[in-house]
Amino acid sequence: MTRKIAIFDTTLRDGEQSPGASMNSEEKLVITRQLLRLNVDVIEAGFPVSSPGDFKSVQQIAAEVGDRAVVCALTRAVEKDIDSAADALKDCARPRIHTGIGVSHSHIYDKLRTTPEKIIERAVNAVKYAKKYVEDVEFYAEDAGRSDYEFLAKVVQAVIDAGATVVNIPDTTGYSMPDEFGRRIRFLMENVTNVDKASISVHCHNDLGMATALSLAGVQNGATQVECTINGLGERAGNTAMEEVVMALKMHGDELDGHTDINTREFIRASRLVSSITGFVVQPNKAIVGANAFAHSSGIHQDGVIKSRTTYEIIDPKDVGIDDNSIVLTARSGRAALKNRLSMLGVTLDQEKLDKVYEEFLKLADRKKDIHDDDILVLAGADRSGNHRIKLEYLQVTSGVGVRSVASLGLNISGEKFEAAASGNGPVDAAIKALKRIIDRHMTLKEFTIQAISKGSDDVGKVHMQVEYDNQMYYGFGANTDIIAASVEAYIDCINKFTK
After folding, report:
1. Residues 74-129: pLDDT tens digits?
2. Which residue of 48, 135, 375, 377 has the fewest CB atoms within a 10 Å radius of its CB?
3. Closest Cα to residue 339, out of 388, 306, 298, 292?
4. Phi-psi region of 8 (alpha: psi -120 to 50; beta: other; left: phi over 0)
5. Is residue 375 within 8 Å of 364, Cβ to Cβ?
6. Residue of 330, 325, 290 whose CA lies nearest to 308
7. What number of other Cβ atoms are within 10 A of residue 101's Cβ?
8. CA distance 321 to 204
9. What string of DSSP letters covers 92-132?
């Protein structure tokens, strides 16, 4: 059996330090609930002494979590910080205080303007002081990635003797190379005589794009806790991305001698939630959770994936919460990809018809960047929208700054005309409320995604929606040069799927 690697999530603390990613207390609670669904081991809830809001958030998160995970509060090696953390965690079922100090030459002499001897003294005092409040004390050796090996070992030895249960070895600036960082962890495992009395943790930043590699090098050489964030959110270039390090452990557990207890099927939901709350868009080619992570546009790749998923995918999309991979149709796509997409849409063509449709498909693909399902169905003579019971006849929206948005629309439902109007909090909200006045059913919008407009202001905007009705999820798509119209079309597409 491989070692259990604890996952320490710091999205709510280090992740929030990313400029522009600040979250309020309620938003932190929403993310906390998702972290519990992921089954993380430790949630670093905040830095209580930094502000009344952070103090309150740590209290609320501790109450929300109960005994389902360890709740951790950050401090400096300062007594008032530790007092504040202890106070915020006083009703916590599984509290941890995370205290520490800088250990590199730069931190000792330039930032703190002290001596190595005084650093060890302050580190030990901080751990002992925190230990008066809680049994579980984690010590962070800030900027350990640039510290002297022998001095770092002395610090680690001393804080474990003082009662630290976890020692965090951060590469605070993302400076290290993976091999060197691995050697640093190995050095500690072999030269700190009491290292077996504590867990060694790694906390790596992504300044050189190697945070995941650094964390895995740490695990490979003895670390049993990884500190990370959803989507790699964090200061400067970010932290180790939880989804990357967990899936790497899942794929290479035997080599790394490690496994986690993370529910990986919650990764996509977690990624989208954090992106939505912080406003930080996940880049399309982001590993594991990016929109293109399981997308294939090359004809050769598409043919291989259609025949066998493992040809070009090392991870089953379902393992991270995606229903399936994405075969993106472009001018480079082959007949196999087109035939597969038509089959998914319920259209079967003989070879002669497929060849003719493929010729027309290539002509269209040369003119359009992306080919959508409706485009393909029109080419195949099976226009999907022609079979819809509900069609949008017209849409008119009044919107602006300082005025309430108003929308009026007309629907054709099986040949019968209906009209309605409504006001709302923005043009899309007004339009959907008008739609709901005609389609009077209890529907809940669960997801609303607008794809980036790639060329100019006159290009087609693409909207994907997920609507819950009668405890079932329905997906809809809309495309229009008017993004409000595309949103209404996507909603109608969902409705048509449960009103057949």
Report:
1. 999 999 999 999 999 999 999 999 999 999 999 999 999 999 999 999 999 999 99
2. 135
3. 306
4. beta
5. yes
6. 325
7. 25
8. 26
9. -SSEEEEEEEE-SHIIIIIIS---HHHHHHHHHHHHHHHHT
